[in-house]
C-alpha cells in the first residue's frame, strides 16, 4: 500500500509553511516562535490548541538519545521533542528544514540551525531545568537562546495553562482561524484552503519515506495527514513527540486526511515497541482529542444543511450517536431517529428529537414504495419490515413512527403496532441489514427480554460482518476455495455434513468406476475389432479367417459384467445418488473384486484416454476400495478434493475470523482485536445467479467481490449443441464483464483470484498461452531456464503467463469501471494460498476504509509481485 499523491519529495519538504505548532508544554515551540518572530516571518498556519489537560508527550529516553546520536544526519525536518515536563524537563530543538528558505531565507535558516545546534540542541539543553511555570519556561528559553525574547504582543503569545501554573500554549497572533485549515474533502466542495502536505517516497514502493530503505513487509507507521510511512528507525525523527498524534512534524497543525479518520487512536505494535505503552497512550489520547483532528462540522450535511460546530457536538454527544461518522450528506428523521446516507436506506437509529438539519425531504432515502414514514418515502426493505410487524401497507399510506416504535396513520391517534416489540421485525431487520434500536431503554413499557437483547446484538454483529462474495466461472475452483477456507480457519464440518460428504464422495467414486466401466466396454469392443482386422489380414494356413475369441483382456467375468451393467444403467437413469447408503453395504465387496480384476486394471491403466473422468478421480480411485467401505471416514484432503460438496446450485456461506499469523505482513496498522472481526464468505454458483446475473441484487451489501478464474482455461473449450466451440477463458471473461458491470456491484471492490497455478505450471510448457485469442500478444522472451520458477529476476514462464492474464483482466476492469482490480494468484488446493488470498481481501477492505490509493508495481514480474499485489495499469 503506497501513497500515490503528487510526486513531491518528502525528505525535502514541499513548500509548506513551517509548522510551529503548539506543543502543550513544550517550550521548544515558544523558542522557535521567538526566533521566527525575530526574523519577522509570517506565521501562516493556525495554531491548534492541544488539550491542555494532557501532559506533554513522553519520549522514552532511549528514543531520545537515539535521535540525538543521529542528529548529524538530520537536516531536513524540524525536530521537536521533549521529556515529560511534569518532571524536570529537558528540551531539544532541531534544525529547521534546509528548504525552509522560501520562508526564512537561507541565512535565516542557517542562523536558526546554528542557534539550535549551538544553543538548544538536546545535549546543550540537557541540563536546563524547566519548572511547571510560565516564568521558568521563558527563563529557560532565554537561557537556551541568545537572542530569544518574547514580546508577546508582537510575535507570540504564551498562554497560561488553565491547569495550575503549567505553561501550555504558545500561539502566534497572525494565525488565521481554525476553519482555514480544513481542506476540502471528497464529499465536500468547501472553500479552497491551505494545501495539505503531500507525501511521496520518490516512487520507491514499500520504502520508508525518510530513509527510503525498502522493506515492504516491515511494519510502518503512517502520517494521518499526508500518508507518509516511516520505518521504526525514522519514526521518531520524522514525527517528533507527536503532540497531535501520528503526523510528520511538517504536518502538525493540519487536519488529518478524512480517509484516515478510522485510524485515529489505533496505533501499530511497532509504535508501542518503540515508545512504550505510557507514551503511546498519551500520544493516542492527544491524537483522538486534539482539536485539529476533530471532524469538521461543515462536512456533515444533515437534511441538506451543513452542521454548525454546536450541532455536531449535540449529534456526537447524544445517547445514541451515529457510529463512525464521516463527512457526507445524511438524512435524519427527527421523529423516529432513523438516520441514513442521502439516497440510501436507513443505516442506524440514533437519538430522536434533535434540532439538526432542515425538514426531511420526501426522497431522502430514494424510496420507491407508496408508503411514507414521517414524510419520507420508504425503501422496499423498510416496507417488508412494516409488513413483518403486521402493518397493512396497501395503497398510498402515510405513517407516523415515533422513537419508541409506535406506528400510526398520519393524523390519527390509534397505534397500529409497536415495531420494536416484534421479534419477527428483529429477524427481518437483521436479514435486510436494516437498523434496529440499540438502546433498549427506548422500549418504554415494552418487555425486552434477554433473548431479544441478544438478538439485537446478533443483528448488529451481522451488520458489522465483512461480507466477501465468491463467484466464478464453471469449475474455476470456488467450492474448493470455500472448503479450504473452512479448513484453514477451523470452521468444523458438522457430523451431519460429514455424513453427507461421505455419501457424496462414495457416489462420486461409483460414478468414476462407471466411467471406467464404460471405457472398458469400448476398449473391449475396439480390441475385438482390431483382432478381427488382424485375422482378416493374416489368414491362417488353411486360408480361412477362422473365428476370433470374443473374450479378450478387457472382458469381465459374468458376475462383474452384471454389476457393470447395473451400475451403468443406474447412472444413465440418474439414480446413482439414491442408492446410498444402501449401496455401500451391498456393493463394496464387488468393488473390491472389480479392483482386482485384470480387465478393470487394464482399463484403469488407460484412464487418461477417458476424458469424462475428472482430475479429482485420480485422487480417489487409487483408494476406491477403502472409500467404498462402510467404515470410511473422509479426511480433510478428501473433503477438499471431493466434487459436488458445496451445493452446486445454491449459496453457501461460512463465517470466520483470521487467527493471528505470521502472514500478517500486510498489516500496516494491525488491529489488536483483529481476530474478533468477523468475515462471511458467501460462495454462489453462477447458475443460481440467473439470466444476466440478475440475482446479484441479493448481494448488495457485500463488501468485496472475489471473482475466481481457472488459469488452465486458456486452452480449453466448451462445445454447444451445434458444435460451436468457445474458449473457456473467453467465456470467463464474458462472465466477469457482466458481473463487474452489474449495477448492484458498481461501487464494490473486486479481487480477481487466478486459481490453479499448479496446473498452469504443468500445462504451460506444452500449450502456449497464446492458444487463447485474448492472449495472442503473449510473447515472452525467456532467458536461462525458461520454465523453472526462480528468482525475482528470472520469473518462470507460468509466472509471466499469470502476470499477462492479470494485466489483461486489470485493463478490462479499468476500461469498464475506471477503477483498479486487485489480483491474487494461487492454488485452491493449498491452504496457505487460500489463506493468503483471503487475508489480501481483508487488506483491501482495510485500504478501502482508509481510502488509501495504492500503487505497487509488478515491475520485476516476480512471483511475489504477481501474487497478491496491486499494480498500476500500464
Ligand atoms: N490442481 C488443482 N485443482 C483444483 C484447484 N482448484 C480446484 N481444483 C479442482 O478443480 C475442480 C473444480 O473445482 P471446484 O472447486 O469444484 O470448482 P467450482 O468453481 O465449484 O465449479 P463448479 O463445480 O462448476 O461450481 C475440482 O476437481 C477441484 O479439485 C487448484 O488450485 N489446483
Ligand atoms: Mg464445484
From TrEMBL:
GO biological process entries: G protein-coupled receptor signaling pathway
Coiled-coil stretches noted in the UniProt entry, renumbered to this chain: none
Annotated Mg(2+) binding sites: 479, 648
Annotated GO MF terms: G-protein beta/gamma-subunit complex binding; GTP binding; GTPase activity; zinc ion binding
Residues the record lists as binding GTP: 755-758
Record keywords: GTP-binding, Magnesium, Metal-binding, Nucleotide-binding, Transducer, Zinc, Zinc-finger
Pfam families: G-alpha
Official protein name in the record: Extra-large guanine nucleotide-binding protein 1-like
